[in-house]
Amino acid sequence: MRTEIATLGEFGLIKRLTEGIKLENKSSKYGVGDDAAVLSYPSEKEILVTTDLLMEGVHFDLTYVPLKHLGYKAAVVNFSDIYAMNGTPRQITVSLALSKRFSVEDMEELYAGIRLACQQYHVDVIGGDTSSSLTGLAISITCIGEADKDKVVYRNGAKETDLICVSGDLGAAYMGLQLLEREKVVLKGEKDVQPDFTGKEYLLERQLKPEARKDIIEKLAAANIVPTSMMDISDGLSSELMHICTQSNAGCRVYEEHIPIDYQTAVMAEEFNMNLTTCAMNGGEDYELLFTVPIADHEKVSQMEGIRLIGHITKPELGCALITRDGQEFELKAQGWNPLKEEK
Ligand SMILES: [Mg+2]
């Protein structure tokens, strides 16, 4: 079934998409339905705000990304930024611009993904806007969250001798993207052929349905650890390490042998004839957390499941470097995964 958006109109569409939304958080005083939403946060909290704009053809490709997954991911990447400040996401607003190619049912799919993510992370949709677009789909999500005033973690707090930690594993989302891009080329024009992704499910999941590391933030809080600096890994470990070091006026040493990599990522890198460490250091979109802790927390973090110690913070004069398995030092470069860079 395909219902043209024009049959509902802008207000009708918003009404359809936001039907039945129940607000879960105390701080969400009033959501969709008036000129503005009303939020009410206790005075002992800091309020965190982050926003993200995704453009079709630049940030996502609908030939292999299902709309529901896209909605889920668009919401989750915003939650990830709030967790990366050691906070808790509470509300989002969702703005969409869509061309005539999209139907009401398409937008319901996209919203189903957004609403699923919100349910899973206990976040309220409190507003948004829709508009028409001449070319393709654009999604902008703004997320609002909270943190205790003394618990907010910035990028600029890393100190010499601090330990550098990373959650989960790296490079899988990037390999998932390579895989999808390869199948897209191979299968062009052959509508009936289904690619075989057996044994590569983890890579696809990491690319198509990433999760924000709420669990790690909760574990750190339970262990009474407040990182000295933190950010989420969206552009690649190299680039994020350099952000932390630049903003903290520090250097770092990270060890190749300690970079966490999944088996499927390694197999895929070999198949593509790519350097595995490069993929893990520069592949983007893993949405894992990179953080530093004082050396006094060594025992506590080394016992935490799902967290790897990958190196330490140094004096700024020493720069940022990767130590390879055979003991060579390579200066870190932020190759990153920033689509804007390719246009320069
Ligand atoms: Mg971030």
Structure, explained:
There is one protein chain. The chain has 344 residues and is an alpha+beta fold. It has two domains: 5-148, PurM-like, N-terminal domain (60s Ribosomal Protein L30, Chain: A); 163-342, Alpha-Beta Complex (Phosphoribosyl-aminoimidazole Synthetase, Chain A, domain 2). The protein is 33% helix and 24% strand. The protein has helices at residues 5-18, 67-83, 104-121, 172-186, 201-208, 214-222, 237-248, 263-271, 276-282, 298-302, and strands at residues 28-30, 38-39, 45-55, 88-98, 124-132, 138-148, 163-167, 229-233, 251-255, 288-293, 307-314, 320-323, 329-331. Strands 8-10-7-11-9-12-13 form a seven-stranded mixed beta sheet, sandwiched between helices. A four-stranded mixed beta sheet has the order 3-6-4-5. The chain has a two-stranded antiparallel sheet with strand order 1-2. Mean pLDDT is 94; it is low at 337-344. Residues 81, 84, 231-232, 234 line the site of magnesium ion (MG). Magnesium ion (MG) binds at residues 81, 84, 231-232, 234. ATP binds at residues 111, 128-129, 155, 234. Keywords: ATP-binding, Kinase, Magnesium, Metal-binding, Nucleotide-binding, Thiamine biosynthesis, Transferase. Mg(2+) 4 binds at residues 35, 50, 81. This is Thiamine-monophosphate kinase. Residues 33-146 form the PurM-like N-terminal domain.
Secondary structural class: alpha+beta
Proportion of helical residues:
25-40%
Total beta-strand segments? 13
What hetero molecules are in the model?
Answer: magnesium ion
The number of distinct helices, counting runs of at least 4 residues, comes to 10
Instruction: Walk across the major sheet and give the strand order.
Output: 8-10-7-11-9-12-13
Percent strand equals 15-25%
Oligomer: single chain
Choose one word for the global shape. Answer: globular
Q: How would you state the average pLDDT, rounded?
A: 94
| Name of the CATH first level of the largest domain | Alpha Beta
**Could you state the CATH homologous superfamily of the largest domain?**
PurM-like C-terminal domain
Contiguous uncertain segments of 5+ residues = 337-344
How many domain units? 2
What CATH architecture of the largest domain would you give?
A: Alpha-Beta Complex
Q: How far do the termini sit from each other?
A: 42 Å
Please give the largest β-sheet.
7 strands, mixed
